[in-house]
Design goal:
The complex is a heterodimer of chains A (418) and B (1098). Chain A has 418 residues and is of the alpha+beta class. Chain A is built from eight helices and 23 strands. Chain A folds into three domains: 2-148, 2-Layer Sandwich (Beta-Lactamase); 178-270 and 384-416, Immunoglobulin-like (Sandwich); 274-380, Immunoglobulin-like. Among the domains of chain B are: 45-258, Leucine-rich Repeat Variant; 512-604, no CATH class; 882-988, Gamma-adaptin ear (GAE) domain (Immunoglobulin-like), CATH 2.60.40.1230; 994-1078, no CATH class. Chain B has 51 helices and 15 strands. In chain B, the strands form four sheets. A five-stranded antiparallel sheet of chain B has the order 2-3-4-8-6. In chain B, strands 1-11-14-13 form a four-stranded antiparallel sheet, with no helix packed on it. In chain B, strands 7-5-9-10 form a four-stranded antiparallel sheet, with no helix packed on it. In chain B, helix 32 (516-527) runs antiparallel to helix 33 (533-549). In chain B, 50% of the residues are buried. The chains are: A alpha+beta (418), B alpha+beta (1098). The interface between A and B is large, with 107 and 115 residues. Chain A: InterPro entries: Adaptor_comp_med_subunit, AP2_Mu_C_sf, AP_mu_sigma_su, Clathrin_mu, Clathrin_mu_CS, Longin-like_dom_sf, MHD.
Chain lengths: 418, 1098
């Protein structure tokens, strides 16, 4: 299975290596660097590479490459999923997954990697289990540890490992018992030039933050579960009950976790919250072009659209942009050729507009393709599909927990073609 | 100097390893002195202070040093010269320090083998540690040290750990198997033995790891899987996600060798009946076999059924592996269910998308229909990475058909304009493929491509030319306009491939453009020397073709070009030129070929087929690395073709080997009619095991013959009845039961005596209470628990009456078809056992009743020596805790609570008795309360009788038996009323899985002596002074565990014993208890709770 892992930063330095079997020299990464060179953008590096003696499977996250070395046949998704799990764990432990954080906590990261794989086969990947073995660093604990000489490493088998609820540790205690659920929906859409929808769908996720004492057994039910077309669950969810009753019944892990992902059935028409009027044109004569974008509300269900942002990947030939925005600010990054217009809240009375001219490099032919716009937005207190949580029941414990559900709609991959 | 001192230190540390000392001397010398004189003097200095820190006495300094050392390892810097200093700390008490030393050791042991040996004894000691976590990590490190000398030690450790009571340690041993195998492949045979043993393990923790070991060590030993196949299928849902992936891919290969192909004709029919297979009526199956060409093996169906829920996993690798399983194993029309899940994965990370899209690309070639409804999910976004875009394009092209081509082409138009030119070029290729595949749009595509010829981007134009060339070849008739257009563009095109393509087109169709072609040749003659090789070759070609068709105009031009080519720097071009000259220019030396020159050069050429790049990928199993790379990767296991004839399916039947079985007759032996007892115990046994229908049918045929005298009308009745009940049972495998030849024989025996006990039943039913009283106090308590608490005398009479009828039916239906009976018996047996089962717990004292033959049967069992000392006793009553099973809100008025009565279970010794109080808090009466589906499907539950009616506000207490298989895994089942069903689950506390036993102090210490070492756990508990009285301690212990008190002569030692097959533990309040004794070890068991001087404190 997984033989070795190298962490590589964006400049191509290997700053951490871990071997689960015998040591493999760093030179194996040269093949990767070659491919990295060829791909120009780091995103374009093929995730699976073949070298004479090894196979390299890599992921790119947080400007870092996680490169694993494989020697024999193994499902590539197995490795990819695991590498992402490693990145998730690091994020979970230290708040972010970046080179700096990993370098600062190199020992803890190393201990984590040691626990997560044995001989290249995943051993413990549940956050709750890992946290019992290697406690995440907190300021308080590091002070206490230096004073008492206690360590961050547990010496007993995590209770979760042996139970049938490996995701939850026993003996959880809170003074405030609370369970929060965020229903977050993302609209993936492609709109064409005229504003008609080429493709739109809604993907949702329920993120939970559960801090409950003991072994609570929760049941979450929906007003309209029929909306959900395809779902995937955290292992804690009892699939049988979902199949028979369409309720989510589970013993939750402690802390933050993703309860379920869902896809809203495609029969329902997707409400597109904003419309975009745009005209981007480049002139045949002279090194310039014009840009004019207006955004207005469309189907917002009476809610305010916030966090509105437009990102445009300009053609390489565009040198600079001289624009005026009626609302918000815009920036144009010369190196990456990305124009970002940060609008903020959408005011239906006064529609935001961005207008002005673009300068293109003299002598190059006019770009024939107009760049597409990527829209980012947020609508609080609304699940655009109309999904509603009807109730949350708790069994198995006596106290009354504090419960809360929040809805949020975001733009996922929302693209307007021009 | 330093070296000397380390050597001395080693002597202190591990004296046993003195022999190794000599070899060790040299290694550190070289490394440290090398560093001293070498280039790394700064490095060396740094490590020098680390060394000092490591050798200091302060724990914190050592830890700090180790952290820095691990930091060095992480950066890939060499710190091997610290080995002696580090390895000393291997026995440190500080757990973090120890772990870091382990990390270091694993990293460098291979380089410093001799020194590494010094640490071995520490691990050997730790392998015996009472803490399972320490045992496991010791094994982990020991097996990770790649030092060939310790192979025998590793082997021994693995063997021991494989029999450990902690599933976690067993899991670790499964991992160690692979490590040892890679270190020394010669151990294979022995390791296979261990694998075979571990495969039988029932823990979900072990399953994934041992299958991994199997895949690595002996993937071809498919015979090891047979017996465990069903178990693996049933456990699958509960195995951790990584294990699921490995098991699924192994089972895919297994299924391809063991089952016949479901893809043949007639496969469609079987689906209507698949339920029947599962309820598995063997006779029906036979009929079907005659009628239909293909019937899916129930085991095959079991696999498909049990993997399906995993499509909802959050782990993409699991979803993918289920998808490939369905692709390779499911009947064609069932494969579609994986589509949605695969499309869902496209929302995941980029790398996941890449792999999933590759697999979809392969699938979509063979099965367009699967993904067509999701076509729009494959639309490309400008932000996608290039490799994602190309894959999506590939899939869209595969999905194109007459109906959707216009949509797809419109989409392609957008892509062609993409700024990503590589992608635009790929789009043009895709358009070309659509044009050849769908004849309706060929012209449209061609026109579109011609328009692209005036595109400003060169790569786009070039690609268009190449594709147009291919398209024209397929339809050469009426396209001279396009060729002319291309000739006009020729001057502006600089991409060699495109120029070459145009030249080839000119030559090929020179007769259609008689005026233009010579002109193009003229231009080429001017620029010939400056062209790329590929263009030169095509120029020579064009010249030759024109010479043959239009020699008048082109003769001189051709000769000129041939002369240029003759002196070209590239030998390919020189060769070609010579060849062409000889071929086309007639002279006296030229041979016979000359005559055929025209036919050779201007032969009609077959059109190229534009094919998907994924065309041949289906030779690899989906989801594999090989598939992803399109190259056979090392260690790839070929997926075999379906066998023409299915191998013997009975190999998957599980033999009756478990101690439970042995226990059962023991239970039975106190009964008045032993043969009847046997019948039941048998029956119960069989419930536990899984088996094939084939042997089941054998069974039923033999029994039906012996049962001919039974009335036909009742037979009908019973089959009706059992039909009904069989639909109640959700246990998919319940039908596929198997009985060993032994039980078969017993059955026959039973048949003979059947009638007598039946009568007896009738007689005794009414006064069963008093009858049982005679059997002793235990019997009474258990019988009352078996009855519902509210049950009145008359009630029970009624019940037992109906039972007797039921029992009669049951026997008959048994005769007809065994599996049905099983289901039925589950429901009915609880009443019969008023007679037959209640005395069960008092087995030992009554052993004299056992017939000599039975006794001899029993003698071989591990039981015999234990039974003298061990008796399962009535429980000492502690406070009874009640748990909620179903809340009346969720239960629509039906509420259920349960508690563990702590009585031996009547139905089966391996079961735990549970009492359930059902209350109706709604305003209408509830009808037909019974137990429905359970999960895991193999869960063995003794259900209570269906409660016909429960009035509002009424409550009834029923008892059930649940076999938790000695694990704390929750038993999930459905509580059904007439209208509704509610999923509920019972989670046993460890303490409830035990059975108390009475024993003398001597016996206790004797048993305890057997259970030292790994089986032992000890801990210190602080308790308030008030609690130190023996009574208080006893009370506390009893409140958490069902144990018996062993009278003790010493005042400060309290012993508790529990037993019998279920658990062995040393326990302290609320700690993780106990290690399981597996059944095979029979009834050796039980040390419990011995403690010296309780520590007093606040």
């Amino acid at each position: 299975m997984i033989h070795s892992l190298f962490l590589i930063n964006h400049t191509g330095d290997i700053f951490l290596e871990k071997h689960w079997k015998s040591v493999i020299g760093r030179s194996v990464c040269d093949y990767f660097f070659e491919a990295r060179e060829k791909a120009v953008e780091p995103e374009n590096v093929p995730p699976v590479l073949q070298t004479p003696h090894h196979y390299l499977i890599s992921i790119y996250r947080g400007k870092l490459f996680f490169l694993s070395v494989i020697q024999t046949e193994v499902p590539p998704l197995f490795v990819i999923e695991f590498l992402h799990r490693v990145a998730d764990t690091i994020q979970d432990y230290f708040g972010e997954c970046s080179e700096g954080v990993i370098k600062d906590n190199v020992v803890t990261v190393y201990e984590l990697l040691e626990e997560m794989l044995d001989n290249g086969f995943p051993l413990a990947t549940e956050s709750n289990v890992l946290k019992e073995m290697i406690r995440p660093p907190t300021i308080l604990r590091s002070v206490v540890n230096t004073l008492t000489g206690a360590s961050n490493v547990g010496d007993t088998l995590p209770t979760g490992q042996l139970s049938n609820v490996p995701w939850r540790r026993v003996g959880v205690k809170y003074t405030n018992n609370e369970a929060y659920f965020d229903v977050i929906e993302e609209i993936d859409a492609i709109l064409d030039k005229s504003g008609t929808t080429v493709f739109a769908e809604i993907q949702g996720v329920i993120e939970a933050c559960v801090r409950l004492t003991g072994m609570p057994d929760l049941t979450l039910s929906f007003m309209n579960p029929r909306l959900l077309d395809d779902v995937s669950f955290h292992p804690c969810v009892r699939f049988k009950r979902w199949e028979s009753e369409r309720v989510l019944s589970f013993i939750p892990p402690d802390g933050n976790f993703t309860l379920m992902n869902y896809h809203v059935s495609s029969q329902n028409l997707v409400a597109i919250p904003v419309y975009v009027k745009q005209s981007i044109s480049f002139f045949e004569t002279g090194p310039c072009g014009r840009l004019d974008i207006t955004i207005g509300p469309k189907q917002t269900m009476g809610k305010t659209v916030e966090g509105l942002m437009v990102t445009i990947h300009m053609p390489k030939a565009v040198l600079s942009a001289n624009l005026t925005a009626t609302q918000g600010t815009y920036t144009y990054d010369l190196a990456t050729k990305v124009l970002v217009w940060d609008i903020g809240k959408l005011n239906p009375q006064k529609l935001p507009n961005l207008k002005g001219s673009l300068t293109t490099q003299a002598g190059t032919p006019k770009p024939e393709d107009n760049p597409s716009l990527n829209i980012d937005l947020k609508i609080q207190q609304l699940a655009i599909s109309g999904l509603k949580v009807s109730r949350l029941d708790m069994y198995g414990e006596k106290y009354k927990p504090f419960k809360g559900v929040k809805y949020l709609t975001k733009a996922g991959k929302f693209q307007v073609r021009t | 100097m330093r070296n000397m001192s380390t050597a001395v230190l080693y002597n202190d540390q591990g004296g046993a390893e003195a022999a190794v000392e000599a070899g060790q001397e040299s290694t550190p010398t070289t490394s440290s002195s090398g560093a001293a004189f070498g280039l790394f003097s700064t490095d060396f200095k740094k490590n020098e202070d680390l060394k000092e820190m490591l050798e200091s006495n302060k724990e914190s300094l050592k830890l700090e040093a180790m952290k820095r050392v691990v930091g060095l390892i992480a950066k890939g810097k060499n710190s091997s010269e610290l080995f002696p200093a580090v390895v000393k700390n291997v026995a440190s008490k500080n757990i973090e320090l120890k772990k870091l030393v382990y990390v270091y050791l694993v990293r460098y042991a291979e380089e410093q083998q001799d020194l590494a040996l010094l640490s071995i004894s520490t691990f050997q000691r730790a392998l015996k540690d009472p803490n399972q976590f320490i045992r496991a990590s010791a094994l982990r490190v020991l097996s990770s040290i790649r030092v060939p000398i310790i192979v025998p030690i590793m082997m021994l450790a693995i063997k021991e750990a494989a029999a450990d009571l902690s599933p976690y340690v067993r899991k670790t041993s499964a991992h160690a198997i692979q490590k040892l195998y890679s270190l020394d492949p010669e151990q294979k045979e022995q390791l296979i033995e261990v694998i075979e043993k571990l495969l039988k393990d029932k823990s979900t923790l072990v399953a994934g790891s041992v299958v991994m070991a199997f895949e690595e060590v002996c993937p071809d030993r498919i015979d090891l899987i047979h017996k465990n196949y069903r178990k693996l299928c049933n456990l699958l849902v509960d195995v951790e996600e990584w294990g699921q992936v490995v098991i699924i891919s192994m089972l895919t290969r297994y299924a391809r060798t063991q089952f016949t192909s479901p893809w043949k004709e007639g496969a469609i029919f079987d689906e209507n009946n698949d339920k029947t297979f599962y309820e598995s009526d063997s006779e029906e199956k036979k009929e079907q076999t005659e009628a239909k060409p293909y019937i899916m093996d129930p085991d095959h169906r079991l696999l498909l059924r049990n993997t399906k829920p995993l499509l909802q996993s959050r782990n993409t690798a699991v979803v993918m592996s289920v998808a490939q399983l369905y692709w390779h194993l499911a009947p064609k029309h069932e494969v579609n269910i994986v589509t949605k899940s695969l499309v869902r994965l496209l929302r995941s990370h980029r790398e996941v998308q890449y792999i999933v899209l590759q697999n979809i690309a392969t699938m979509s070639i063979q099965r367009k229909g699967m993904f067509e409804p999701y076509m729009k999910s494959f639309y490309v976004r400008s932000t996608d990475a290039t490799h994602i875009k190309t894959l999506k394009l590939e899939i869209l092209t595969n999905l194109a058909n007459e109906a959707n081509i216009s949509t797809i082409l419109r989409e392609f138009q957008t892509y062609v304009k993409s700024q990503d030119k590589a992608f635009a070029a790929a789009t043009i290729q895709a358009i070309g493929r659509c044009a050849t595949n769908i004849s309706e749009v060929t012209d449209t595509c061609l026109n579109g491509l011609v328009l692209l010829l005036s595109n400003r981007d060169e790569t786009v134009v070039a690609e268009s030319v190449v594709v147009i060339k291919k398209l024209l070849q397929t339809q050469p008739t009426q396209h001279s306009e396009i060729i002319k257009h291309m000739a006009k563009l020729f001057d502006n095109i600089t991409v060699p491939m495109a120029r070459a393509s145009i030249l080839w087109l000119m030559g090929e169709y020179c007769e259609r453009v008689p005026k233009i072609a010579p002109d193009v040749l003229r231009k080429m003659a001017k620029t010939f020397t400056a062209e790329e090789d590929i263009v030169k070759l095509q120029t020579v070609n064009l010249a030759a073709k024109l010479y043959l068709t239009n020699s008048k105009q082109t003769k001189l031009l051709t000769q000129y070009i041939l002369n240029l080519g003759k002196y070209d720097q590239n030998y390919d071009i020189r060769d070609r030129t010579r060849f062409i000259r000889q071929l086309i220019v007639p002279n006296e030396k030229s041979g016979a070929l000359n005559k055929y020159a025209r036919r050779i050069l201007l032969a009609p050429k077959p059109a190229p087929v534009l094919e998907s790049a994924f065309k041949d990928r289906d030779r690899f199993q989906l989801g594999t690395l090989s598939h992803s790379l399109n190259v056979k990767a090392a260690g790839y296991q070929e997926l075999s073709d379906w066998p023409a004839v299915a191998p013997d399916q009975s190999v998957r039947n599980v033999e009756v080997i478990e101690p439970v079985k042995e226990w059962a007759p023991l239970v039975g032996k106190t009964k008045k009619s032993k043969s009847e007892d046997k019948f039941y115990s048998d029956d119960e046994d069989e419930k536990e095991e899984e088996g094939s229908e084939s042997s089941g049918s054998e069974d039923s045929s033999s029994s039906s013959s012996s049962d001919e005298e039974s009335g036909s009308e009742s037979e009908e009745e019973s089959s009706e009845e059992s039909d009904k009940t069989s639909s109640d049972s959700g246990k998919s495998s319940s039908g596929s039961e198997k009985s060993s030849s032994e039980s078969e024989a017993e059955q026959k025996k039973k048949k003979k005596t059947k009638k007598a006990p039946l009568k007896k039943n009738k007689l005794t039913a009414g006064d069963s209470d008093s009858d049982e009283n005679g059997n002793g106090p235990v019997a009474q308590s258990s019988s009352s628990s078996a009855e519902s608490s509210s049950g009145s005398e008359t009630d029970s009479e009624d019940d037992s009456d109906s039972d007797n009828i039921a029992a009669q039916k049951k026997k008959k239906s048994e005769a007809k078809s065994k599996p049905k009976v099983e289901v039925k018996s589950k429901k009915e047996v609880s009443l019969l056992d008023l007679d037959d089962f209640s005395p069960a717990p008092t087995n030992a004292p009554k052993s004299s009743v056992v017939s000599s033959s039975l006794l001899s049967d029993l003698e071989g069992l591990s039981l015999s020596n234990v039974s003298s000392t061990m008796q399962v006793t009535t429980p000492s009553f502690g406070p009874v805790k009640t748990y909620e099973l179903l809340h009346h809100m969720t239960g629509k008025g039906l509420s259920a609570k349960y508690h563990f009565p702590r009585q031996p279970c009547l139905y089966q010794p391996s079961m735990v008795a549970v009492q359930v109080i059902l209350t109706n808090s709604s305003d209408h009466s509830l009808e037909e309360i019974h137990i429905g589906d359970r999960s895991p499907a193999s869960l063995n539950i003794h259900c209570f009788n269906t409660i016909e009616r429960l009035e509002p506000e009424a409550s009834v207490t029923v008892s059930m038996g649940i076999d938790f298989s000695d694990s704390t895994q929750a038993a999930n089942f459905q509580l059904c009323t007439k209208e509704d069903q509610f999923s509920v689950s019972i989670q046993p506390a460890v303490g409830e899985l035990l059975m108390p036993s009475t024993m003398t102090e001597e016996d206790f210490s004797k048993e305890q002596g057997k259970l030292l070492g790994m089986n032992e756990t000890s801990a210190t508990i602080t308790m308030a002074t008030a609690n130190t009285s023996s009574q208080a301690i006893g009370k506390q212990v009893l409140s958490v565990a069902n144990v018996g008190v062993v009278s003790s002569s010493q005042n400060n030692v309290h012993s508790f014993s529990s037993a019998a097959g279920r658990f062995n533990h040393e326990n302290k309040e609320r700690r993780v208890w106990s290690q399981q004794i597996r059944r095979s070890q029979g009834f050796k068991h039980a040390v419990l709770f011995s403690r010296e001087n309780p520590h007093k404190s606040d």
